[in-house]
């Protein structure tokens, strides 16, 4: 996609719309969806909205017992499967099992992730945020290709973040092997990678009927913040010293139901037919950042760069081949 394609289209929804509002009046009977991280935070609300509209939803989970409890009272057709995004053999096994079921896959939402965690390595030594948020999801998506192609028309949504603003991909050292680790730079890199993955996937798989988007869900208090101590959230301005939430943050942050909306909109909206590869926020295509953009909004130019997206794709393919 070119940077010029990053223009809002007037979706009719906004920052405070919920996932269920986005799907109001829609019948997704016969639609098969996969939502990673679909048993916690905004992922749980994505599953609730999609299954409530009639979709058959598969939730791969690293902790199936926890997922079973979280989803036990949720109506609709929901199936649990085991998968650990940090373990590529586990990812490939899940994808192979889904393909073997011969079900087409119409919607894939790559939602699960980790944020701002201490340095940890997964797979053959990958930095964990890049390895889980990007490489694990890429391996799963590639493994699901026969099921996605079987659908004829499908949508893939990659969860990015406004944190992409923090960092482009560290092209010469994505796993922090030769330069100092910074947890926020690592998270920003992973979220830029998620956006670039959607950019490349949309172009590379267009002939398979695939449309892909990346999404910033908004600021939401969920278990994603598990690695942030209260004192750090106070320093960030997200909490008061007494643990309460400042009023400006209450106004800016979203509920999980609202945080799920942009991904569900990107996965289902007819208004996005004929488009693809763009970065979305607040249930619309995000505009390209300019000199007046705030630090938490709009798409930075590097995530719209086709050449960078193709470079990341090739680099990631090599990493996965060695896993």
Give a structural overview.
This protein folds into 2 domains: 3-219 and 256-321, NAD(P)-binding Rossmann-like Domain (Rossmann fold, 3-Layer(aba) Sandwich), CATH 3.40.50; 222-253, no CATH class. Helix content is 38%, strand content 13%. α5 runs parallel beside α7 and α7 crosses α12. The protein is α/β, with parallel strands linked by helices and 323 residues long. The strands form 2 sheets. Strands 3-2-1-4-7-8-9-10 form an 8-stranded mixed β-sheet, sandwiched between helices. Strands 5-6 form a two-stranded antiparallel sheet.
Task: Quickly describe the structure.
By secondary structure, this protein is α/β, with parallel strands linked by helices. The protein contains twelve helices and ten strands.
Number of domains: 2
Main sheet properties? 8 strands, mixed
Oligomeric composition of the shown chains: single chain
CATH topology of the largest domain: Rossmann fold
CATH architectural grouping of the largest domain: 3-Layer(aba) Sandwich
Using only C-alpha atoms, the radius of gyration works out to 18 Å
CATH class of the largest domain: Alpha Beta
Contiguous runs where pLDDT drops below 50 for at least 5 residues: none
Content-based structural category: alpha/beta
pLDDT averaged residue by residue: 92
List how many beta strands DSSP finds: 10
Proportion of strand residues: 5-15%
